[in-house]
Amino acid sequence: MKPIEAKNQVRLGPARCVQLALSGMSYRMFRSMITISILALAVAFLVHMLVYGLVSHETQTAAYHELQQSRQMAQIITRLTRPDSMRVVLDQLADDDDDVLAEYRAWSGVDGPTFDDARQAAQQVRDFDRYLGQLPEAGRAAVVGDRSTAELLERLRDPEAMADFTQTVENLAVAPPLGGYDRLTELVNERRPIMIEAARQIRQGHREAIRQVRAAYDNRAARALAAAPPAGFGQSLRDAGFAFDDGVLPGLEAFADRADDLATLARLVVTPEIRKAVARQTDVAPADVSLEQTLLYVDNDRRARWFSQTLIDGGADPRFTPERVLDLSEQFARERQLQAAAGPEAPTGEGGILGLPTRTKWLIALSFLVCVVGVANAMLMSVTERFTEIATMKCLGAMDIFVMMMFVVEAMIQGIIGGIIGIVLGVLLAGLRGGVEYGGLLANAGDALADVGIAIVLSLIVGMLLATVAAVGPSFVAARLAPMEAMRVD
Amino acid sequence: MSESPATAPSSDGKAVIIRTLGVKKVYGEGEAATYALQGVDSSIHRGEFIAVMGPSGSGKSTFFNMIGALDSPSGGRILIDEVDVAQLSASELAFLRCQKIGYIFQSYNLIRYMTALENVTVPMAFAGVSPEEARRRGMNLLDLVGLADRWDHRPIEMSGGQQQRVAIARSMCNQPKILLADEPTANLDLKTGQDILEIMQRINKERGVTIVCSTHDHRLLAVCDRIMWVRDGTIERVEEAKDIKIKVGSIGGEEH
Fold first, then answer.
1. A15 has a chain B CB within 8 A of its CB
2. How high is the pLDDT of residue A353?
3. d(Cα A403, Cα A477) in Å, to the nearest integer?
4. How large is the ipTM?
5. Which domains occur in chain B, in start order?
6. Distance of alpha carbon B113 from its chain centroid, rounded?
7. Measured between alpha carbons, how far is A101 from A119 in angstroms, rounded to an integer?
8. What's the rounded Cα separation, in Å, for the pair A169 and A163?
9. Is A1 within 8 Å of B83 when comparing Cβ atoms?
10. Are the Cβ atoms of B109 and A388 closer than 8 angstroms?
C-alpha cells in the first residue's frame, strides 16, 4: 500500500483570516464591543492629550506673539517720543533681548569690551538686588535700611561703609553677595561707574536718534508719525539705530488709534455724568465704574448703542459710534483672552508632539499601560472561551499560524474600529476643552493642524498595534496547544 | 482511495492502516500520575469498521486521541499508513488531520457562528479547495446526510442529530481514508443514534473508509466488523463481530 504522503499543509491567505475573524466578531458582538470600547477610550485619551497639547501650545505661542507685537507697537510709539528711563536702560542691559541690545550698543558709542563690562555690571547689580531681597527681614533692615539698592551701592564706595556692610552681613551668618566681597568691591568701584556712564550715553544716543527721526520728517510728533507711517519710515528708524520687526509697522496706525481711543475712554468713563449712567446701567456702585468693567459689559449691539449714546450725550467725540465702541470692546476682550492664554513666560521653542510637557507624556504612557492590560485581558478571555473552537479548527487541519492570525486579525480590526471611534471622541473632547479654555483664540491654532493630523494617524496606528500586541500573547499560547489539550481545558 | 493495496499485510493478510506499538499515556507526574494507556498494541485494517468498547475511564478516548494524532503518546509508536506520527512536523500533522482523517465528536464540536454549509467547508478551505468547489462539494455532502435543505442553519438552530450529521458531512469533506468517531451517538436518542450509525455504515461500505468508533452503544455491534474491548488502559481482547452477534441479537433485538 502506498503510504500517506507526509505533505505540508496549505497556508491560507489573510483574506480568509479576515473573513473568519469578522464572522467570529459578529457572533461575539458583546465581547467585541467591550474590547473596542477599551481601545476607543485609550485612543480617545491619547488623541485628546496630543491634540489638546498641540493646539494649546500653538494657541499660547500665537497669543504670546500677538501680545508681543502689541507690546512692540506700544514700545515704538513710546520710544519715538522720549528716551528710555535710566531704570529701563539698566534693566534692558541686564536682559538678553538682542534687538534692544543692538540698539543700545549703537547708541552707547562705547567699544565692545566696555559695553560688555557695563552689561555684566548691570547683571551683577540685578543679582545683588535679588540677594538683598532674599536676606531675612531683620538682616535686610540692618543692611539696607530704607535706602534703594542704587543708593546702597553708591554708599559702599566708601571703604568704611563697605567694612561696616561686610561686618553686618557676616553677623547675619549668610553667604557673601555675588560670591565674594572682593567682587562686590570691584563692582562698586570699577564696573558700576562704567555702567552708569554707558547708560547715560545710551540715553543720550536715544535722544539723538529721536531727534534725527523727527528732523527727517519736519519735526512731526512721534505719535503722528506712528499713526500714519510715511514711506521709508522703517528705514529711517533703522538708520537711527532702532531695532524692530518689520511686521509691526503696518498695524501701527490702527494700534495707535485704538490706544488713543482707549486713553480718551478711560478719561471719559470717570467723568461724573457718564460714571453715573454706567453705574445705573450695569448695576454697580459709581465708585466701582472702570474702563475695564465698562468695556467688558459692552459686548453686544444693543449695549454698544446705549454706550455710544451715553458717551455722545456726555460730550464725547462723535467718532465713538456703536460700531467703534463694540470694536474697542471686542479688542479689549481679545487682549484679555490673549493675556490669559499666553501666560507670563515665552513659550518654549519646541513645538509638535515632542514639545508636549513631560507630565502629559507620562500620562499617555500610563494610559497605554492600562489599555494594554485591558485589551490583553479581553483577548485572553476571548481566547480562553474559544479553546474548543481552536481545538476543533486544529482537528480540521488549521495550522498554528492560522489560529494565531485569526485572533490577531480580529484584534487588528477591533483596533481600527476602536481607534476611529477613539479619534472622533478625542478630537471632540480636545475641541471642547480648547473652546472652553481659549474661546475664539482657537482659530489661531491653524498652524498646529498638520501636527494634529500626524497625531491622529499616529494614534490610529498605536491603537491597532496596541490591540495586536495584546492579542499576540494569548493567541500564541492557544495556537501552540495540542488539539486535545485545548479541548480538555474546556 | 484508488491506491494499490497491500504493502504491510497483517497476520491475516489484510492491509494495516493504523498500527500502535506499546503506546503509553500518562497524565500528571510522580505520585499523581495516572496511567491512561499502558502499552497498547493493535492494528486496524483498511476498510474495517472497528468498535472500541469499554467502561468509562478505561482509556477509550485517550486511545482515540492517540490514533487520531490529536495528542502525543508518553511512550510507544503510532503508525498511520506505516508513517510514524511522531516523525511528522506541525505542518505535516495538520495535513494529516485535514486530508487523511475525519473526526466525529460526542459533542459535535461544530463552530457556533457558522452555518451548516460553512462548517462543512472549513476543512476544505484548510485544504486549499476553492470556495466555489467547496460549496459544491459541501452541498453534496449535506445531501448525503439528508440536510441539504438546512444548509444555512446555524448549529443552535439544529437538533443534536442534525448537528451530528453536519459533523459527519464535515469529517468526510476531504475524502479521508480514516474516520474516527468518539462516542458519536452518546448524546442522541435511540432513533437519531440509529440514523447516525446507518450513515456511518453506508460510508464504510460504499466508500471503503476505515472507521474506528469508540462507543457504549451496543447497536454498533451489528454494523461493525471487529470489536476492541478496552479495560484499564489495555486492550483486553479483540473479537470478530460475527462471533458475538448472536449473543447481542438476543438481548438488543435492534439489528436487521
1. no
2. 62
3. 10
4. 0.82
5. 16-108+172-252 (3.40.50.300)
6. 24
7. 9
8. 10
9. no
10. yes
- In chain A, residues with a C-beta closer than 8 Å to the C-beta of B17 are 1
Is residue B25 within 8 A of residue B66, CB to CB? The reply is yes
Rounded Cα distance, A17 and A403, in Å: 9
Q: Do B103 and A485 touch (CB under 8 A)?
A: no
Whole-angstrom distance, CA of residue A185 vs CA of residue B96: 97
Nearest to A484 among B70, B111, B125 (CB): B70
Residue B123 near residue B107, CB atoms below 8 Å: no
Q: Give how far Cα B161 sits from Cα of A155, B184, B194, B241, Å.
A: 111, 10, 10, 26
Residue A56 to residues A51, A347, A436, A442, A449, Cα–Cα distance (Å): 8, 11, 12, 8, 12
Neighbouring C-beta atoms of residue B2, cutoff 10 Å: 4
Contact (CB, 8 A) for A438 and A431: no
**DSSP string over B112-167:** TTS-HHHHHHHHHHHTT--HHHHHHHHHHHHHHTT-GGGTT--GGGS-HHHHHHHH
Amino acid at B26: V
Q: Which three cell numbers stand for residue B144?
A: 448525503
**Does residue B177 sit at the A interface (CB-CB below 8 Å)?**
yes
A12 touching B (Cβ < 8 Å): yes
Pairing of strands B226-231, B234-240: antiparallel
Query: What are the backbone dihedrals phi and psi of residue A238, each rounded to the nearest 5 degrees, phi first?
Result: -65, -40
pLDDT, one tens digit per residue, over B186-219 is 888 888 889 889 999 999 999 999 999 988 888 8
Q: Strand B226-231 to strand B75-80: parallel, antiparallel, or no bridges (unpaired)?
A: unpaired
Contact A462, A43 (CB under 8 A): yes
Measured at the CA of A489, the angle between CA A485 and CA A490, to 5 degrees, comes to 125
- Residue A130: is it exposed, middle or buried by C-beta count within 10 angstroms (0-12/13-18/19+)? exposed
Burial of A465 (0-12, 13-18, 19+ CB in 10 A): middle
Which grid coordinates are listed for B204?
A: 464504510
- pLDDT 10s digits, B11-26: 555 788 999 999 999 8
Nearest to A447 by CA among A45, A61, A68: A61
Q: Which of A8, A12, A395 sits opposite B91 (nearest CB)?
A: A8
Tell me how far apart the terminal alpha carbons of chain A are, to the nearest angstrom: 39
Cβ atoms B212, B20 nearer than 8 A: no
Task: Please state, in angstroms and rounded to a whole number, the distance separating the CA atoms of residues A262 and A265.
Answer: 5
**Minimal Cα–Cα distance from B66 to chain A, Å?**
10
Specify the amino acid at residue A489: V
Q: Which three cell numbers stand for residue A322?
A: 456703536
CA A159 to chain CA centroid, nearest Å: 49
CB contact under 8 A, A1 and B65: no
From the number of C-beta atoms within 10 Å of its C-beta (0-12, 13-18, 19+), residue A232 rates as exposed
Are the CB atoms for B25 and B62 separated by under 8 Å? Answer: yes
| CA torsion through residues B173, B178, B181, B185, sign | positive
Cβ(B64)–Cβ(B52) under 8 Å? yes
- What's chain A's average pLDDT? 80
Q: Do B244 and B72 form a contact (C-beta atoms < 8 A)?
A: no
**What tens digit of pLDDT does each residue of A281-330 get?**
888 787 777 888 888 888 888 888 888 888 888 777 777 888 888 888 88
